[in-house]
Amino acid sequence: MLIFRQLFDPQSSTYTYLLADGKTRDAVLIDPVFEQAARDSALVRELDLKLLYTLETHVHADHVTGAALLKERLGSKIAISAESGAEGADVYLKDCDRVAFGRRSLEARATPGHTNGCLTYVLDDETRAFTGDCLLIRGTGRTDFQQGNPRALYRSVHARIFSLPETCLLYPGHDYRGLCQTSVGEERRFNPRLGGQLAEDDFVGYMKHLGLPHPRQIDVAVPANLKCGRPQAGALPAELPAWAPIRLTFAGIWEIEPQWLEEHLREVQVVDVREPHEFTGPLGHIPGAKLVPLGSLAEQAKTLSAAAPIVTVCRAGGRSAQATLILKKAGFERVANLAGGMLRWRTQQFAVEGASE
Ligand SMILES: N[C@@H](CCC(=O)N[C@@H](CS)C(=O)NCC(=O)O)C(=O)O
Ligand SMILES: [Fe+2]
């Protein structure tokens, strides 16, 4: 079974793709985005995967890759084209090289034109291909900076992508309209730049007159990506806020394990957001917890102190997850949700007070 996820970075309209062998749990991530490293790590952890490689389709001009950051956090290897000019990668891919993850693999196909080092990754059974910025949905990558060359791009698409089966699904590096996927057959017929009867000279004429402004981040992104996403100066950012070993879930919630809370009860404020009858119900509450039902939390937030971190709690960890968002909005920075709520706290046999029979 193949595990497949398409992820989106709204800031740069970039797609990141996670692929894994469902049996061995070995995974690869195509085109991770620096700012999304915590999200991507959380998904890898929650799906119980081992990230073997991050795979770059090219040296991006519009966002910084998450490759170096994920290598530091998850131990993944960085792979990019040998033609990319990037330094600091673990694997330099050449045309037709294969990258294996478990029993599955991707073939790297050289598809230059947007940049010299553009690769399209084709899944072993040719049911999916990841085209980077070579072929976009009813569009193509631009050819007016880096080593852009419209003739090379036209030939790459026709020789290396349109030669795949009609039904092969295509996943681009970006989409600026919210479209997610296309297919070889569709793009062969309907791509307005190089599909149908359009010839190489038609494409060159089209690309000459695109008139796009340069990407906002180009001056930062290209130098950083030529180092696989290592910052120019200084270290990579820490994964976790320093006050506790909290972790960000894929759902975007900072959470903390009951074991840590039990050992540090006196250093934090525990805010219980259940209703009063639950607070003194059969589950009881954590010693010293302050009762602030979720419905009144926004209003009561000002009665809480910013001096100590806040851990929110409810029955199973759902309402208290929402409470962390409310508290963040109210200006509290050190906030985490108690994973599993009172149910898990009780399962682990930690102390409670105020429990009714
Ligand atoms: N407005 C975007 C522009 C991004 C951009 O130019 N993207 C490149 C890929 S790196 C491209 O080929 N775009 C094709 C297009 O916009 O049609 C930004 O500032 O980041
Ligand atoms: Fe690009």
Report on this structure.
By secondary structure, the protein is α/β, with parallel strands linked by helices. The chain is 25% helix and 24% strand. It is built from 11 helices and 20 strands. The chain has helices at 37-46, 67-74, 150-161, 184-190, 200-208, 218-225, 258-263, 276-279, 294-300, 319-329, 341-347; strands spanning 2-9, 14-21, 26-30, 50-55, 77-81, 91-93, 98-101, 104-110, 119-123, 128-132, 135-136, 139-140, 169-172, 182-183, 247-248, 254-256, 269-272, 290-291, 310-313, 335-338. The strands form 4 sheets. Strands 1-2-3-4-5-6 form a 6-stranded mixed β-sheet, with helices on one face. A 6-stranded mixed β-sheet has the order 7-8-9-10-13-14. A 6-stranded mixed β-sheet has the order 15-16-20-19-17-18. Strand 4 (50-55), helix 2 (67-74) and strand 5 form a beta-alpha-beta unit. It is elongated and about 80 Å long. It starts with a strand and ends in a 10-residue tail after the last helix. The structure holds glutathione (GSH) and fe (ii) ion. The site of fe (ii) ion has 6 residues, from loops. Fe (ii) ion binds next to loops.
Observed structural traits:
single chain, 357 residues, alpha/beta, 6-stranded mixed beta sheet, 11 helices, 20 strands, binds glutathione, binds fe (ii) ion
